[in-house]
UniProtKB/TrEMBL annotation:
The lineage of its organism: Bacteria, Pseudomonadati, Thermodesulfobacteriota, Desulfobacteria, Desulfobacterales. NCBIfam families: ATPase_P-type. This is Cation-transporting P-type ATPase. GO terms for cellular component: plasma membrane. GO terms for molecular function: ATP binding; ATP hydrolysis activity; metal ion binding; P-type sodium:potassium-exchanging transporter activity.
Amino acid sequence: MEPQSRSDVSVPEGAWHSKPVGEILQAFEVSEAGLTSEAARQRLAEHGPNQLPQEAPEGLLRRFVRQFNDVLIYVLMAAAVITAFLGEWIDTGVILAVVLINAVIGFVQEGKAEAALESIRKMLSLNALVARDGRRVTVEADQIVPGDVVYLESGDRVPADVRIIEARNLRVEEAALTGESLPVEKQTDPVAPTAELGDRSCMAYSGTVVTSGRLTGVVTATGRHTEIGRIGEMVARVEKLTTPLLRAVNRFGKLLSAVILGVALVVFFFGLGLRGFSVVEMFLIVVSLAVAAIPEGLPAIMTITLALGVQRMAQRNAIIRRLPAVETLGSVTVICSDKTGTLTRNEMTVTEVVLPDGNVAVSGTGYDPEGDFEQDGQPVDPAAQRNLHTLILAGVLCNDAEVRQDPEKGYIVDGDPTEGAMVALGMKAGLDRDQLQRERRRVDVIPFESDHRFMATLHDNPEGGRLIYLKGAPEAVLPLCERQGLEGDAGSLDTAFWEERTDVLAEKGYRVLAVACKETDHDTISFEDVQDGMSLMGCVGMIDPPRPEAIQAIEECRQAGIRVKMITGDHAVTARSIGARMGIGDGEKALTGRQLEEMDDEQLRQAVLDHDVFARSSPEHKLRLVEALQSHGEVVSMTGDGVNDAPALKRADVGVAMGIKGSEASKEAAAMVLADDNFATIKHAVEEGRTIYDNLKKTILFILPTNGAEALIVLATVLFAFNQLPITPVQILWVNMITAVTLALALAFEPSEPGIMRRPPRDPNEPIVSGYLLWRIGFVSVLVACFAIGLFFYELDNGVSLLSARTMAVNVLVAGQLFYLFNSRFIMQSSLSLKGLLSNRAALMAVGLLTLFQLMFTYLPPFQLWFGTEAIRPVDWLLILGAGVAVFFIVELEKAVVRRWRKAR
Ligand code: ATP
């Protein structure tokens, strides 16, 4: 496939994969130092942002029309037509108005919910590291232009089509483009002009993922001019605003509608044949029944509850990528967390250096370059101590991090904190890194990977030849070393001594790095080059303080019946020590990656129950751990940041990726992303997940009795052959509409119940409406219906008009719901407290609004005309209030009895 001609852009055309690097740079008028910001700005204006065409969002009109696609709306439309035939023009008008208003409400709510999610999606926009004005800067991926020099490393998603000009152990997974899921090797040499897409090994294409190594490349095409843009690929379809629970509720709603229509038919003939109602009367009754019983507002309100909850989570730094995770979070039983950065602050500070002839203590905090060196209480000058000096120098050169001063945050690291700690150590020792880097130019590098646990760099030696500097985990470095100390006073390696010393550091919870060097004359560096002959300079111990909020969150998780497990690449002793300090594990046991590898699945199943600390573990181990835990029926949340963590994140019930240090690949595999990389955020998300689930449950618990009571009133009319309907269809429509936009919505804002993190996780198989909740729904329906019917007849007996008695019935119904809202704020706990009554502002506002609506409904002439109402006597309001208060207290009494009864069992 040859790139097509690009008539609308003025970038040079060509089969970039067949051109040598020099030609590419020339064609795009760029050097390896990148574009200037000015050139980038111009090219952006010329070529447009680097975006794929988005799938057109559903048109507003279409979304509006969709609101009418509902069983209830069909019933209402039929009712409108028939009332029109009967000449009941006012009813026709009201019904049509309600249909329209309903659609508008649904439309607006859906829009709000979508907007809430959209803003969350935006928080996850892709960034890329590019060279601009000779410096590496992070820009949003849509700002990338042809000719930009980009830097990518393992875990990154390739943001545009890129001609690779430098590659290191590079593998790219191109499934998005070619369908081939195995990563392919990439390099910098041009290939034949006729090479197929999959064979263009010097190109990295937009949408593919770097699975290992790193690359520098020149962007050759952006946006829809990329290969993926040209095959018409759309941005991944936005997720539907739904979850398994919501789908279940929707299905239930549909089923219920069908059942209700069936019942209505039976009632129709029953009323006609056995109760002597006329066809017109029965028709009105049946329409009333359908309107009354179908909980049409429920799905929309549940959707908005969910969306608001997801938004609240985002405000607390937990960004949901897959909505079903919201429900799953509430039933999580085990959280497996990385240590570094998630449980700890990832602010590494070197505090001890172990040399062959003793320990040197280093003072200072964070990355602040202020600190002193001391040996046995005596100050040490690192410049004078050759061994110490070389160790620090090696640590600074075998390093990709930068420490810089931020006006607000003080000294901070760009890059890996472990490396930042070495840079800060160098600053404390007074090394001039820039000068060192000039004198000892870096020629080649083996980047750090969790698999081999070391990093090595090759430098020019000012004294001739080359030097290898290497740093890494002691178990990885010691086997490579033959000697210790510097040339001249070097001795043979005393492995036992180093193991003992590193254990002492690890006991204190320190991360330990060993540093080694070697002279060589090679021009490149490979794994063979470091396999032997290295000389160990010493080890450094760095602290990484636990996050205090994580310690508290772990304790709260424990109370909430959630076990926290720590999975770390660090040494077992370090891991155990940190774990004990944070409340994970017993401080005794830690399972290492090697031990884990020796176990078969059955042994591992047992081991995951016995251990909470997993050390020296690699991403592959995480997958096995998730599976072992799930085999016990645990609901597992797993964190991860690297590209290799993706399978475990996908497999976990709730995969959690790190927003700051996580790779793009891990974020894509995760259901949730932590904007602050903090463990405490997972706890907040669990809490919020439990709250959302509660609120969904409360919504159902609150809404269904309205429908129940209305349906019972209508059924009673037929069954007992009342002369008159206590409430008319249009009045039922009014009640449903008005309570849905006020009261029911208030529950979406309901805060967490107290003690929400002191109950055990929810059983994922438990139905949302348990037998007990069904009882509550039925009980309240009957209660409210009795009050409404009772007071309707009481009024008639007192000689008031039919219209006035109906107005009374409607007001009783609404008052019952209004007070019942406060019962529903707590499913089992008592609402009889100031907090229970006042703590949800949305509920209070809803009450105020609803009262206003009811006054209008009762007294304003147009409303009286539309809804067939009439003013009621002032004393009637006392009765209405009394009925509402009675409902509240009776339900509270019921809760209290059930609470006591449950306790007694
Ligand atoms: P956690 O799993 O707790 O998040 P981690 O994933 O950061 O920890 P790794 O990065 O795999 O753990 O680090 C494992 C070991 O490798 C460390 O204990 C340290 O000895 C060594 N190490 C870490 N970073 C570097 C680095 N940049 N250069 C050399 N060695 C390193």
